[in-house]
Automatic annotation (TrEMBL):
This is Histone H2A. GO terms for molecular function: DNA binding; protein heterodimerization activity; structural constituent of chromatin. Keywords: Acetylation, Chromosome, DNA-binding, Nucleosome core, Nucleus. It comes from Urocolius indicus. SMART domains: H2A.
Length: 132
C-alpha cells in the first residue's frame, strides 16, 4: 500500500467551480462575495448566490437578445449602448424588472405580524396543554 498512490482506494476528485457545476456562465463565487460584503443578511444560504447568479445571467441574456434584434433591424454589426437602452425601453419583461414590481414593504410587515400572531397562539395552546 502506497499512501501517495490513491488510485486503488479512491477516485481522484477533479476540481470544478460552482458556476460550472450549476451550468452557469456568471461567477457564483464573486456573487457570493458581493452578497457577504454587502451585509444584506446575517446568514446566507449555500444556494442563494447560485440562484442570484442564474437570475443575473437570465436577465442579461434577455437584454442582449433584444438588443441584438434591434441592432439587426438597424443593419448594425455590433450591439452598442444605444441598442441596450432601447431594449430596456421596448421589452415588456425588462421594463417590469426595472420598475421593480416586487412585494412592498407594507405587505412584508403584515406577514411578520401574522407570523408573530401564529407563534403566540402556538405558545398559548402549549401552555393550555401543559396545565391539563
Amino acid at each position: 500500500w502506497d499512501p501517495n498512490n490513491d488510485s486503488e482506494g479512491k477516485a481522484t476528485k477533479s476540481r470544478s467551480s460552482r458556476s460550472s457545476r450549476a451550468g452557469l456562465l456568471f461567477p457564483v463565487s464573486r456573487v457570493e462575495r458581493q452578497l457577504r460584503s454587502g451585509c444584506f443578511a446575517r446568514r446566507l444560504g449555500a444556494e442563494a448566490p447560485v440562484y442570484l447568479a442564474a437570475v443575473l445571467q437570465c436577465v442579461t441574456e434577455e437584454a442582449v437578445a433584444v438588443a441584438g434584434r434591434i441592432a439587426k433591424d438597424r443593419d448594425d454589426s455590433c450591439i452598442s449602448a444605444l441598442h441596450l437602452r432601447t431594449a430596456l425601453r421596448k421589452s415588456s419583461v425588462l421594463k417590469q424588472l426595472r420598475r421593480g414590481n416586487g412585494p412592498s414593504h407594507h405587505a412584508r410587515a403584515g406577514q411578520e405580524r401574522q407570523c408573530r400572531a401564529l407563534a403566540s397562539r402556538k405558545k398559548a395552546t402549549k401552555q393550555k396543554q401543559a396545565t391539563k
